[in-house]
TrEMBL record:
Region Disordered: start-end pairs: 74-122
Species annotation: Streptomyces fuscus
Pfam families: DUF6479
The name this protein goes by in its record: DUF6479 family protein
TM regions (residue ranges): 15-36
Compositionally biased tracts (Basic and acidic residues): 74-83
Keyword entries, A-Z: Membrane, Transmembrane, Transmembrane helix
Domain of life from the UniProt record: Bacteria
InterPro entries, per database record: DUF6479 (IPR045513)
Amino acid sequence: MSTTTVVLAATSSEVLNVVAAFVGGLIIAGALVWAVQFGMRVMDRELPHPSPEDHPKMPEGGPVHEMREMREPDELPRAEGGERLMPYQLRHAGSRTGKDQRRKRWLPGSSGSFGSGGLGHV
């Protein structure tokens, strides 16, 4: 093989690679254009955005504020005759307003910090 044949073979392979990359880029660009047009058609078929009149309004009395209260759990029903209660005999765990409405406060020296294995109640 002469040098001219090798150069010609190398050149033709590079041209094919460039053409293949260009065609691949055109295919990807065409797919992206199609996807955008498809998305626009889908958005046109969707319901329109709600108007400002459809949005919720503030109550007549002004904004509603948070109400804080201490809650305590309802007692579970007792089983009759020492039988255990089955899950279908229980009701949802509810709660009621507690008798003591003072917030529980942390007292220094009364316990260790969370998970530290501290001294606990001293």
